[in-house]
Amino acid sequence: MTKQEYLDIYDVVGAAMEVHKNLGRGLFEPVYQEALAMEMDSRGLTAEREKQLHLYYKGVQMEKTYYADFYYRGIIVELKSTDSICSDHRAQLFNYMRITKSFRGILINFGEKSLRAERYLYLPDEDNFILLSQENYKNFITE
Fold first, then answer.
1. I need a surface site. Which of 17, 116, 131, 137 has the fewest CB within 10 A?
2. Is 0.90 topped by the overall pTM?
3. Cβ of 133: how many Cβ atoms within 10 Å?
4. 99: how many CB neighbours lie within 10 A of its CB?
5. What CA–CA distance (Å, rounded) separates 132 from 45?
6. Tens-digit pLDDT profile for residues 28-80
7. DSSP string, the chain
8. Is the pLDDT of residue 143 over 80?
9. Phi and psi dihedrals of 33, rounded to 5?
């Protein structure tokens, strides 16, 4: 991951923090999705909202599709508005990252008192997901 690719993650989380600061917690997820789209647009962060994700079986596209809340510069962004993030929420993001071969993902929860944003890196060769933190993110920057 380049430094710019990491900064792209930082930009999305910053926009989400502004939304949480203005709307607080406890609203429905679609409200936060709309507000985040507005905030990202105001910052010049052009993202695809409700990005359709296609599935393939043996090279043939399946009828079943998934939808990610946002897709921004190679980042899958999944929003929640719940008391806390659970393993099912992470599994959803990880599946989206895996099927799109996107190596960066953010799971954002607007339902907690403070905004919670988990930043993940997908290592496809290992089929492993790494939670990026202040302590380890520099280990994954290639520039």
1. 131
2. yes
3. 9
4. 16
5. 21
6. 999 999 999 999 999 999 999 999 999 999 999 999 999 999 999 999 999 99
7. --HHHHHHHHHHHHHHHHHHHHH-S-S-HHHHHHHHHHHHHHTT---EEEEEEEEEETTEEEEEEEEEEEEETTEEEEEE-SSS--HHHHHHHHHHHHHHT-SEEEEEE-SSSS-EEEEEEEETTTTEEEEE-TTTGGGG---
8. no
9. -60, -45
